[in-house]
Backbone:
């Protein structure tokens, strides 16, 4: 298919290139446009092969450090950048502004190519590098308008935030202006360096904060034209599930394939999953609060995060940063530790604005520059309900409708100041108060404090609506009942501080409290219940407990579904199903690589879904029915409503495919794989040099150790899941542990490009201390930068 696997979280732009180049089979579409695109595609492959013979030559840690310019830094006092063997930096500065400048230098050094690609992706400029096959994608990205609120948000910044962020941007440009050698991706994608601006960073931040509910909207919009929509919408709300990246696959046709690509980008770049746990002193062995976080994003390289330590007059913290944003997104300071999961709050509404008067629309024209192809003009129309996204064919509107996207991301907010203040907070109360101006991404924020407090609260700018449940997926522009009445935030929404059970857990679950309806689409409670189960024993939880928790692979929900399947197989009363019945009935829900039961269950479950919802044809299953929460809620109930002869038919088919699966695969690890490599590893002709390995991997779609997949019948590669880990014991300033799927350095061929993969597989961590003596011990390589003479 033209757009195959989902995009990598960080290297989304390079992954666009990969998926386009892997589409040689697009010749099956005989339209003139498709034929023209295929001509360009073939030319692209040859051009990339010729000008992009990029050999990822090995480069050592020492040689990479030598690429950092150390002269003439415009800083006020000397700065030290300490490094450990994994290329993790620990920056020590005597002023906050110098810290920000040094962070800019370090971010550009470690992730320059990926930052440049994210900039172009967030601005809808993919076609500039990969040609006409990305035009429809660029149209959609520009219509959404991730940078729409950037200038207004910057205008709200207090002076301290503006000074800090400008110093960070100055650091990015200082490094870029002095680069003697650019990453290989620049040559491959015809990238010419451009000066960095504050607006660029906020636009990237908005892309990373994409509303995860858009995945459900994209799946549901095509169904609105079906005769069953009257029951589909209430059912979607009742199931309350949102798509995972693996739930959506490209269909036939150019627009469907481009829509799938957009879906994969949005899902890969937003924190659509994650686990977070905080444990009170009464449940810990150390008598101190503990915290554990692991976000869920793409499992391709480079990783979405950078492990970083910082010390300046105002900031002393360790944790994970998003490349291009100079704050600890989750980690620990001397007083507080924090993490969180995607809240999946309803921060977007769709409106039909076709009945609005002409004067309600503003219009402007933008030019999409296209490599190897004529430039394209795009007419962008905007209303007070947001941009008219139905100008793109990727957003399905009914005939006569014009769909507008009203998103909190188009409203000014100040996430930068919130996170900077959070890093300085000394109490839970101060930490929560820091999020008063915060908007996106919407988070269940989880905290633990040195004083022993634990808490969970909503970090969100939440629209206040007149209704609890939307009457339809698309509302009516101009209808007073569908208006937003204002906003709530972290300081006005419910907070859970020091709950009596002695722990807080979060895993994208449906909130049980909320002054205003928080949202509609959440994951089921399998993960959150399992997290609670693993931390309930008094005085027993320690760092080792949390390490084991982060790699737990048990799904009680899958076990219960397997038993339901076994009960129905028993109705067939054939000797050929006896072993399957026994295997399913005795399965505990473990998705360890050595288990055989998951093979039989997943293959049989897929076949049953195809039978019930596609009448035996997988292509006929609507995207909304592919969602795991939908299947949990309705599959067996819908199956039991079928005529008896059809029940027997689909049960027999499910048993047959399960037996075939067990003959093909000895265990779950044979079937469930993790391919490690740069996204360019999938490019035809020269991609093999970017592949690093293919391994069995434990876990599943909703296990704590998440390795997501959709409906599977054979060997498949995981591309989404738990790809970063953090644990802190608040009783010890040095007991802070982190790990990445991959490595710190995004430079192809670098010694530190994927050197943490083994740690990730072996469940080991990098320790990030806060005390000065330990910092010096653990980070022995020191770069001392003097202030330039001015």
Residues:
């Amino acid at each position: 298919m033209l757009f195959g696997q989902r995009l990598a979280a960080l290297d989304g732009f390079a992954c666009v290139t990969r998926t386009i180049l892997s589409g040689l089979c697009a010749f099956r579409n005989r339209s003139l446009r498709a034929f023209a695109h295929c001509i360009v595609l073939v030319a692209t492959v040859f051009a990339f092969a010729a000008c992009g013979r990029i050999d990822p030559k090995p480069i050592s840690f020492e040689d990479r450090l030598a690429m950092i310019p150390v002269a003439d830094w415009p800083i006020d006092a000397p700065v030290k950048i300490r490094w450990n063997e994994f290329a993790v930096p620990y920056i020590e500065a005597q002023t906050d502004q110098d810290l920000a400048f040094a962070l800019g230098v370090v971010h550009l050094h470690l992730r320059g190519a990926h930052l440049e690609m994210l900039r172009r992706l967030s601005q809808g400029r993919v076609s500039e590098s990969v040609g006409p096959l990305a035009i429809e994608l660029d149209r959609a990205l520009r219509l959404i308008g991730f940078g729409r609120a950037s200038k207004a948000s910057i205008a709200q910044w207090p002076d301290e935030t503006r000074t800090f962020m400008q110093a960070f941007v100055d650091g990015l440009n200082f490094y870029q202006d002095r680069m003697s050698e650019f990453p290989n991706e620049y040559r491959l994608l015809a990238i010419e360096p451009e000066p960095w601006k504050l607006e660029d960073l906020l636009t990237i931040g908005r892309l990373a904060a994409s509303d995860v509910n858009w995945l459900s909207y994209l799946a549901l919009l095509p169904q609105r034209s079906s005769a069953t929509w009257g029951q589909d919408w209430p059912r979607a709300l009742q199931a309350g599930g949102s798509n995972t990246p693996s739930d959506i696959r490209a269909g036939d046709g150019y627009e469907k394939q481009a829509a799938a690509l957009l879906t994969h980008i949005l899902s890969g770049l937003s924190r659509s999953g994650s686990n977070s746990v905080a444990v009170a002193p009464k449940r810990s062995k150390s008598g101190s609060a503990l915290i554990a976080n692991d976000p869920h994003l793409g499992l391709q390289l480079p990783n979405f995060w950078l492990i970083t330590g910082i010390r300046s007059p105002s900031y002393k913290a360790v944790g994970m940063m998003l490349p291009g944003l100079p704050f600890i997104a989750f980690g620990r300071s001397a007083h507080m530790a924090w993490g969180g999961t995607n809240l999946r709050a309803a921060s977007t509404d769709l409106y039909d604005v076709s009945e609005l008067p002409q004067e309600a629309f503003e219009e402007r024209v933008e030019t999409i520059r296209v490599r190897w192809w004529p430039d394209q003009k795009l007419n962008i129309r905007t209303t007070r309900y947001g941009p008219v996204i139905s100008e793109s064919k990727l957003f399905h509107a009914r005939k006569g409708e014009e769909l507008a996207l009203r998103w909190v991301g188009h409203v000014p907010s100040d996430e930068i100041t919130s996170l900077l203040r959070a890093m300085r907070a000394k109490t839970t109360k101060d930490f929560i108060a820091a999020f008063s101006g915060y908007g996106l991404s919407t988070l269940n924020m989880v905290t633990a404090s040195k004083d022993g407090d634990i808490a969970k609260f909503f970090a969100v700018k939440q629209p206040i609506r007149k209704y609890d449940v939307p009457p339809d997926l698309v509302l009516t522009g101009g209808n007073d009942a569908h208006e937003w009445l204002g906003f709530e935030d972290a300081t006005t929404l419910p907070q859970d501080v020091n709950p009596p059970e002695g722990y807080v857990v979060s895993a994208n679950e449906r909130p049980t409290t909320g002054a205003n309806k928080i949202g509609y689409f959440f994951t089921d409670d399998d993960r959150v219940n399992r997290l609670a189960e693993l931390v309930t024993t008094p005085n027993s939880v320690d760092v080792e407990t949390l390490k084991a928790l982060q790699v737990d692979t048990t799904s009680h929900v899958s076990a219960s579904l397997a038993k339901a399947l076994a009960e129905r197989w028993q109705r067939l009363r054939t000797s050929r199903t006896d072993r399957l019945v026994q295997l399913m009935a005795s399965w505990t829900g473990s998705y360890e690589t050595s288990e055989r039961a998951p093979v039989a269950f997943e293959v049989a479950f897929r076949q049953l879904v195809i039978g019930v919802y596609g009448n035996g044809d997988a292509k006929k299953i609507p995207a909304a029915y592919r969602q795991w929460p939908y299947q949990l809620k309705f599959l067996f109930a819908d199956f039991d409503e079928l005529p008896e002869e059809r029940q027997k038919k689909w049960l027999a088919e499910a048993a047959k495919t399960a037996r075939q699966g067990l003959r093909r695969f000895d265990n779950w690890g044979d079937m469930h794989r993790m391919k490690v490599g740069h996204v360019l590893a999938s490019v035809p002709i020269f991609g093999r040099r970017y592949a690093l390995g293919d391994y069995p991997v434990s876990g599943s779609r909703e296990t704590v150790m998440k390795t997501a997949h959709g409906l599977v019948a054979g060997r498949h590669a995981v591309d989404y899941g738990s790809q970063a880990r953090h644990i802190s014991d608040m009783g010890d300033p040095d007991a802070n542990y982190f790990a990445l799927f991959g490595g710190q350095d995004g430079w192809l061929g670098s010694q530190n490009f994927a050197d943490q993969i083994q740690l990730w597989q072996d469940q080991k961590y990098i320790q990030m201390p806060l005390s000065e003596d330990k910092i010096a011990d653990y980070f022995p390589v020191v770069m001392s930068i003097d202030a330039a003479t001015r």
Notes: The longest helix spans residues 96-122.
